[in-house]
C-alpha cells in the first residue's frame, strides 16, 4: 500500500527578480500534524517563500505540490486546500467580524448550508465570540490577528500558512496566539514564518533556517533540544513543586518567581514542556534554549557575511 504524499512539498523552488535570486533552490516537505517553523532574519526570503507556497507568487523554477498535485498546474486547489495569514491581515473595516468571516467562507467555496457552521466553529476556536458584531476597523492588533487566523482556517484547509503572526503583539497577545497555533496541528499541516526563536520553540515540531534566500539548516526540535537547559518565563508566579509535578522535567531552578531554568528528561522535546505549561495555566511568555543548539545555530548562520553564505 502506497503512503500518501506530504501535504506540502517544495522541489528546488527558486524566485528571481530583475536577474537577482530572492530565493534559491529550496527543498521542503510537511505532513499533516506538523508545525514547521521557517526561521530567518528580516530579508531572508521568508515572505517570498510563503507567497510561493500559498499560490500568490509563481516560482521562477522548481515545483510546489499540495497532496502530490502541482499547485501552479492546478491553481484552483489553493482555494480549498490553503489557509493564509499575512503579517498584516487585509480586513474590510466596514464589515463586522461575523460578516467578514461569512464573506471569506464564500470566497473559499463553502456551500450556503456549510457557511454558518464554519463561521461558528472559527469564531469559537479563535475566541472571537464577544467581538463577532464589532467592526473589524475597531479591533485591537491582537483581535485583528485572531480574525486573520479565523479566515485562514474557516474552510478547514490541509495547509495553514502563517507569516509573522505574532508581529506587533504584546507578550500576552503573543502567548494566546501561540497556544492557538499549537492546537491547529491536530488537524492541519502548519508552516509558521518568524524571526523569533521563542515562537519556534513554543509552537513548532521542526525548524528550517533560511538565510539570504537559501535554506541553510533543518532540524527536528525534539532531537535538537534533547537534554538541553531551557529558560522559561511564565505569566504568574509558580513554585518548584509546580514544576516537579510535570513528568517531563528533570530539574527546575528558580531565577525569580516567574523566571526558571528547566532541564528536560532525556528525549523530551521543548514542545512537550510548552504544552504542559499551557495546560496548567502558568501562562507561557518566553521559552528559549539556555545558550545552546538552535540559538547557537541561528546566530552563527545569521551572522555570516555574503561571501561566507555563498561558500
From TrEMBL:
Task: Provide the protein name.
Answer: ABC-2 type transport system ATP-binding protein
Q: Per the record, a Pfam family?
A: ABC_tran
Q: Which domain of life is it from?
A: Bacteria
- Where, if anywhere, are coiled coils annotated? none
Describe the location of the ABC transporter domain by residue ranges: 8-237
Species the sequence originates in:
Dokdonella immobilis
Q: Which InterPro entries match?
A: AAA+_ATPase (IPR003593), ABC_transporter-like_ATP-bd (IPR003439), P-loop_NTPase (IPR027417)
Name the PANTHER family on file: ABC TRANSPORTER, ATP-BINDING PROTEIN
Give the family from UniProt: Belongs to the ABC transporter superfamily.
> Entry's CDD domains?
ABC_DR_subfamily_A
What keywords appear on the UniProt entry? ATP-binding, Nucleotide-binding, Transport
- PROSITE patterns registered for this protein in UniProt: ABC_TRANSPORTER_2 (PS50893)
Give one GO term, molecular function aspect: ATP hydrolysis activity
Gene3D superfamilies on file: P-loop containing nucleotide triphosphate hydrolases
Amino acid at each position: 500500500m502506497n503512503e500518501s504524499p506530504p501535504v506540502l512539498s517544495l522541489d528546488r523552488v527558486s524566485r528571481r527578480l530583475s536577474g537577482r535570486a530572492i530565493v534559491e533552490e529550496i527543498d521542503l516537505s510537511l505532513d499533516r500534524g506538523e508545525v514547521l517553523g521557517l526561521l530567518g532574519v528580516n530579508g531572508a526570503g521568508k515572505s517570498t517563500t510563503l507567497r510561493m507556497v500559498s499560490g500568490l507568487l509563481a516560482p521562477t523554477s522548481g515545483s510546489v505540490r499540495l497532496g502530490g498535485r502541482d499547485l501552479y498546474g492546478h491553481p484552483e486547489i489553493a482555494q480549498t486546500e490553503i489557509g493564509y495569514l499575512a503579517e498584516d491581515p487585509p480586513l474590510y473595516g466596514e464589515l463586522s467580524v461575523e460578516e467578514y468571516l461569512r464573506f471569506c467562507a464564500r470566497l473559499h467555496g463553502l456551500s450556503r448550508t456549510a457557511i454558518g457552521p464554519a463561521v461558528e466553529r472559527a469564531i469559537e476556536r479563535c475566541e472571537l465570540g464577544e467581538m463577532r458584531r464589532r467592526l473589524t476597523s475597531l479591533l485591537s492588533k491582537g483581535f485583528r490577528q485572531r480574525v486573520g487566523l479565523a479566515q485562514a482556517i474557516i474552510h478547514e484547509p490541509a495547509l495553514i500558512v502563517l507569516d509573522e503572526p505574532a508581529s506587533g503583539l504584546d507578550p500576552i497577545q503573543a502567548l494566546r496566539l501561540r497556544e492557538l497555533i499549537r492546537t491547529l496541528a491536530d488537524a492541519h499541516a502548519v508552516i509558521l514564518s518568524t524571526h523569533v526563536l521563542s515562537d519556534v520553540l513554543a509552537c513548532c515540531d521542526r525548524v528550517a533556517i533560511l538565510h539570504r534566500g537559501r535554506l541553510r539548516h533543518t532540524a527536528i526540535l525534539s532531537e535538537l533540544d534533547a537534554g538541553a537547559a531551557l529558560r522559561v518565563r511564565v505569566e504568574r508566579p509558580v513554585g518548584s513543586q509546580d514544576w516537579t509535578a510535570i513528568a517531563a522535567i528533570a530539574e527546575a531552578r528558580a531565577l525569580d518567581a516567574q523566571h526558571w531554568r528547566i532541564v528536560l528528561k532525556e528525549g523530551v522535546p521543548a514542545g512537550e514542556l510548552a504544552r504542559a505549561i499551557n495546560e496548567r495555566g502558568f501562562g507561557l511568555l518566553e521559552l528559549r534554549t539556555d545558550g545552546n543548539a538552535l540559538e547557537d545555530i541561528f546566530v552563527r548562520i545569521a551572522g555570516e557575511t555574503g561571501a561566507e553564505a555563498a561558500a
